[in-house]
Amino acid sequence: MFAANKDSMLLLHTCCAPCSAAILEWLLANNIRPTLFFYNPNIFPQEEYEIRKNDLKRYAQLLDLEFIDGDYSHESWLAGIKGLETQPERGARCLECFKMRLLATAQLAQEKGFTQIATTLASSRWKNLEQIETAGQWAVSHFPAVEFWAKNWRKDGLSERRQILLSENGFYNQTYCGCEFSACSKSAIKSPESSKPTDKRNIPSPAN
């Protein structure tokens, strides 16, 4: 299985700060400095999207990592998963969602000269690792110069470290995956601030 190293040009697709923090810590400890790509048009509503994006952007600034902001087009995402709205979590809709997001990541990687991509989606216990690897390998098959790093980010103590960093950094901890179909209740969409812990950091606001 492919593995990145300190000489890798890694473009890391990121979904949120809680899922990214332990991965970024591990990468930096292993002399790998990724560029972060936030491309998540599935997130609804846009207020929720902005909260997650800005939380991660602040953390990227703290670590002095480059952050690339992808386009937010929820309507295009809805068109891409049309007909799969009633599929269960970890079903066909999720696979199609992963494929869309990782295809955009692979395309950007090739355009900017990155040789590898990976995703923080694989850190979540709510996600199907096989689906993520399938989507990642499918995405890079369209761009021969790019490889997909299918690392299991739940091992090596990273799941436990995730919880520690979540608490230490006061990250916004969402209550649903992102799209309106994954929300466990209407209140999960309407009240994003209800999951915001007290911020224990002194992190600058994200640059415009």
Report on this model:
It contains seven helices and five strands; from the N terminus they run E-H-E-H-E-H-H-E-H-E-H-H. The protein has one domain (10-195): HUPs (Rossmann fold), CATH 3.40.50. The protein is globular and about 45 Å long. By secondary structure, it is of the alpha/beta class. Strands 3-2-1-4-5 form a five-stranded parallel sheet, sandwiched between helices. Residues 185-195 and 197-208 have low confidence and may be disordered. It starts with 9 loop residues before the first strand and ends in an 18-residue tail after the last helix. Helix 4 (92-112) runs parallel beside helix 5 (129-140). Helix content is 42%, strand content 9%. Strand 4, helix 5 and strand 5 (147-148) form a beta-alpha-beta unit. The chain has helices at residues 17-29, 46-62, 74-80, 92-112, 129-140, 158-169, 186-190, and strands spanning 10-14, 35-38, 67-69, 116-119, 147-148.
> Rough shape?
globular
Number of strands: 5
CATH level-3 fold name? Rossmann fold
Provide the structure class: alpha/beta
Enzyme class: oxidoreductase
InterPro entries: QueH
GO molecular function, one term: metal ion binding
Pathway: tRNA modification; tRNA-queuosine biosynthesis
Kindly list the characteristics that best describe this protein.
208 residues; alpha/beta; Rossmann fold; five-stranded parallel sheet; 5 strands; globular; disordered C terminus
